[in-house]
Specification:
Blueprint (H helix, E strand, L loop, with lengths): L5 E3 L3 H11 L5 H19 L5 E7 L4 E7 L4 E7 L3 H10 L4 E2 L1 E6 L6 E7 L8 E5 L2 E2 L3 H12 L5 E4 L2 E2 L1 H10 L4 E4 L1 E2 L2 E2 L5 E2 L5 H6 L3
Parallel strand pairs: 1-12, 4-5, 4-6, 4-8, 8-10, 9-11, 10-12, 11-13
Antiparallel strand pairs: 2-3, 6-7, 14-15
């Protein structure tokens, strides 16, 4: 497993917010806010290799050379439903990004992903795609979403999650060694129900208050 493709966002504020996120007593309102904030932090890391081009602007004092993002455009693709909680934070960072959606659920018996919805920008194949999902557990849904993007012709894919299990990382990188993974932490593993431990529970339930 090539861990050079995995970036852990270990900023002190990220780890502090992650601790509150994990706490079972954290309310849905605060949980949503923290997911948004952590997604924003991850966005900074995931976009740090974006190309810049030189431009000229005029400040209140004088004309000067400055820099702006150039090159490919961005698409955010949350995996429904929990991935929706990360979209707002990324849009604050990249407000011109287009948003696609892919709906998948994990079969409770087989733990395999089942796709039920897909809608993307028409030019998705020419964009840098950031796939969003708070939890990378077995890696099944993420791998299926990445393959879906590849089949559409997408070349540059980054997977942004808040927590990852080693099993999920391995599954994703074995199925697509070119994808980049960004996470706030790598937990110890999965329990018998394929939930991340110590984890934070079901992210979708905690975001939407459907527990």
């Amino acid at each position: 497993m090539d861990m050079s493709r995995v970036s852990i966002i270990d900023h002190p504020m990220v780890q502090h917010k992650l601790t509150i996120l994990r706490d079972k007593n954290t309310s849905s309102k605060q949980f949503r806010e923290l997911v948004k904030e952590l997604a924003l932090f991850e966005g900074y890391e995931a976009t740090k290799d974006f190309e810049l081009s030189e431009t000229e602007i005029e400040t209140p004092m004088e004309k000067t050379k400055a820099y702006e993002i150039s090159g490919k455009k961005v698409a955010l693709v949350p995996i429904l439903r929990a991935g929706l909680g990360m979209v707002e934070g990324l849009l604050e960072l990249v407000p011109v990004a287009r948003v696609g959606h892919i709906g998948m659920y994990r079969d409770p018996d087989t733990h395999e992903p089942v796709e039920y919805y897909a809608k993307f920008p028409q030019d998705i194949e020419s964009r840098i795609v950031l796939i969003l999902d708070p939890m990378l557990a077995t890696g099944g849904s993420a791998s299926a979403a990445i393959k879906y993007m590849r089949d559409l012709g997408v070349k540059d894919i980054k997977l942004l999650v808040i927590l990852a299990a080693p099993e999920g990382i391995q599954e994703v990188l074995e199925s697509d060694p070119d994808v980049q993974i960004f996470t706030c932490a790598i937990d110890k593993g999965l329990d018998e129900h394929a939930y991340i431990v110590p984890g934070l529970g079901d992210a979708g339930d905690r975001i939407f208050g459907t527990k």
